[in-house]
Amino acid sequence: MTALNTIADSIAGYDQNDMPVDVVRDFLARMIEPIHGTETVDLWDALDRIVASDVISPINVPPHDNSAMDGFAFHGDSLRAGEPLRLACIATALAGHAWSGDVAADQCVRIMTGAVMPAGLDTVVPLELTRTTDDGLVEIPAGALRAGANRRRKGEDLEQGSVALARGELITPAALGLLASLGLARVDVKRRLRVAYFSTGDEILKPGEAPREGAVYDSNRFSLFGLLTRLGIQVVDLGSVKDEPEQLEALLRRATEDADAIITSGGVSGGDADHTKALMHRLGDVAFWRIAMRPGRPMAVGSLSRPRGDGRCVLFGLPGNPVAAMVTFLAFVRPALRQMMGCVRTEPPLLQATSTETLRKRPGRTEFQRGIVSRAADGTLQVCTTGNQGSGVLSSMAHANGLIVLPHASGTIQAGDSVEVMMFDGVM
Ligand SMILES: Nc1nc2c(c(=O)[nH]1)N[C@H]1C(S)=C(S)[C@@H](COP(=O)(O)OP(=O)(O)OC[C@H]3O[C@@H](n4cnc5c(N)ncnc54)[C@H](O)[C@@H]3O)O[C@H]1N2
Ligand code: MOO
């Protein structure tokens, strides 16, 4: 990764206590470098991995001209405008059983979907468009189809030697099928990113611990586990730690040993018990920003050196409030981690939807409101908010399917205005 101070120029001129969201994103995009290291995996293990080098198709897909329909294959130039065509059926071609033989202009071959087109034939009439005449001929009504119809050409999906999947592409279920269609059993992928994470705070309870006065159960550890796991990342769960400098330092040092990145939650705003900030300052090259956004104002970004001196470990110190931790992850950490993974697409596309309600906002900060996108009666997309937008209110996050992104410069949104939504799932 590029050291913070070498790209500090890009943030000079901005108030580090009021950093615009776009500036932070741009800064991270410049700081983060993709990890090295690839491995060859079986297709069964390739889902959600990132392609490490262009996959070149070793074959034509489909490998031969074939029929797109169950029907009769014939010479298209036998068709005459305004006249029915009558053909004698001389053979049957089944998928997986190529038929070879000569077919005259007044003959046809009964053919099934996927079967190789007999040599010289270029057109298939679907069964349901034909009738059998009293003398046993196949009759195609006038104007039923054009010459060349219903033939799938050799290589029309992929030509031998062409790029089937490019380096940096995510292996989706469709991409997995595409690789299989090339006859490949293994694929080169980027190695898995390793990300360590832990929660900080004296008030944090582990699951199963008895409730105690002033304490809350650790939710960030679980939300982060979910967010990281969905990215196909190898997660290193380091649990939670009290606001206690020695413990914190031990955990941070342990995390730097073999993780590519560390994510912490809590302790970045600078309360009396927050030792996290001082420690991060001491162990690495870390910037503490207040970002012009809501929720998720305070965040630490930087790098820590590794104990064995080889390279540095990227650090994201997220705010403790449970929704702020998730929103800063989605807004900044997810694209940064995708970039580290070597993924070409780092940001999800935003949807446009009509707000069903007035959303109060003042210009000068980006707001992320929890929303539910649904289809309106007229078929267009609409979005409503999920109630209490407090940065500690996880229930409204859990009920949402995306975040309404209200840009920095925008003021209040009126009901009926169009807004952008970052969906939580299913868009990369
Ligand atoms: N004087 C100021 N105070 C605060 C500011 C500010 O600008 N000036 N910013 C506020 C904002 S915004 C946020 S967000 C929080 C972030 O503070 P920290 O990152 O230092 O987080 P904590 O103080 O440790 O915790 C905040 C809040 O979140 C709860 N929490 C923390 N960790 C977890 C967890 N793992 N699971 C569930 N809940 C957690 C914690 O109990 C606190 O209620 O600072 C504001 N203050
Ligand atoms: O980071 Mo805070 O959410 O704005 O409470």
From TrEMBL:
Transmembrane segments: none
EC number: 2.10.1.1
Recorded GO CC terms: cytosol
Cofactor needs: Mg(2+)
Catalytic function, reaction form: adenylyl-molybdopterin + molybdate = Mo-molybdopterin + AMP + H(+)
Keyword Transferase (UniProt): yes
Enzyme class: transferase
GO terms (BP aspect): Mo-molybdopterin cofactor biosynthetic process
Residue ranges of domain MoaB/Mog in the record: 196-339
Superkingdom of the organism of origin: Bacteria
Entries under Pfam families matching the protein: MoCF_biosynth, MoeA_C, MoeA_N
GO molecular function: metal ion binding; molybdopterin molybdotransferase activity
SMART domains given in the database record: MoCF_biosynth
Gene3D superfamilies: MoaB/Mog-like domain, MoeA, C-terminal, domain IV, Molybdopterin biosynthesis moea protein, domain 2, Molybdopterin biosynthesis moea protein, domain 3
Pathway participation: Cofactor biosynthesis; molybdopterin biosynthesis
Key words of the record: Magnesium, Metal-binding, Molybdenum, Molybdenum cofactor biosynthesis, Transferase
Similarity comment: Belongs to the MoeA family.
Job of this protein: Catalyzes the insertion of molybdate into adenylated molybdopterin with the concomitant release of AMP.
Name used for this protein in its record: Molybdopterin molybdenumtransferase
